[in-house]
Specification:
It is a single chain. This protein has two helices and seven strands. With about 200 residues, the protein is low in regular secondary structure. Among the domains are: about 30-80 and about 185-190, heat- and protease-stable fragment of the bacteriophage t4 short fibre, domain 3 (Alpha-Beta Complex); about 120-165, no CATH class. The radius of gyration is 37 Å and the shape is elongated. This is Phage tail protein. InterPro entries: Phage_tail_collar_dom, Phage_tail_collar_dom_sf.
């Protein structure tokens, strides 16, 4: 039998299998849709609290991973404002457990997160090269007057210096910045009914 004929004979069976798969989802399967409602047998992934008694199969798969008290209620995943990632740990990456939530839409930098940098400033002190014991030094040199102690003596054209601090004008506004990656909002829905998924 030729390969083409065999393919034609198997095609209807393949189509039927794929049709069944598409028409009947796995319980707990999540799909993405472009419309703004959940089809029959599905629910939007918005963290709704459901009754265990009315959704025993789904609860057996999800448990309280996404919320609920585990006695009478459990919760659906809440993907509002969230980007889904695969759980577990990849090479060189951090471990993420199923249902873990993290991240924020905005963030305000703290001091330890800022790049290392310096602020510079300058100070001008009027002075002259006259004797420090002069009664009326020209240019307001820093010294005691000539009638008392202590006295400051220095050579002409000397340089005076000492420790001190300078306060610069404040910079920045301490406002949170946008922390969002480029995004497109779509409709995530989870199957409440369907085929119970068996393990490999």
């Amino acid at each position: 039998m030729g390969g083409g004929l065999l393919a034609n004979l198997l095609a209807p069976n393949k189509a039927a299998a794929f049709g069944t798969q598409a028409d009947t989802p796995f319980i707990g399967e999540i799909m993405i849709a472009g419309f703004n409602y959940a089809p029959r047998g599905w629910a939007m992934c918005e963290g709704q609290i459901l009754s265990i008694a009315q959704n025993t199969a789904l609860f057996s798969l999800l448990g309280t991973t996404y919320g609920g008290n585990g006695q009478t209620t459990f919760a659906l995943p809440d993907l509002r404002g969230r980007v889904p990632i695969h759980f577990n740990q990849g090479p060189g990456l951090s471990y993420h457990s199923l249902g873990e939530r993290s991240g924020a839409e905005t963030h305000t930098l703290i001091t330890t997160e800022m790049p290392a940098h310096i602020h510079t400033g300058s100070v001008a002190l009027p002075c002259n090269t006259g004797q420090g014991t002069s009664n009326s030094p020209v240019g307001n040199v820093l010294a005691a007057d000539g009638s008392g102690l202590p006295q400051f003596h220095g050579t002409a054209n000397g340089t005076m210096g000492g420790a001190g601090s300078v306060t610069t004008n404040p910079a920045g506004g301490s406002q949170p910045h946008n922390n969002m990656q480029p995004y497109l909002a779509l409709n995530f829905c989870i199957a409440l009914e369907g085929i119970y998924p068996s393990r490999n």
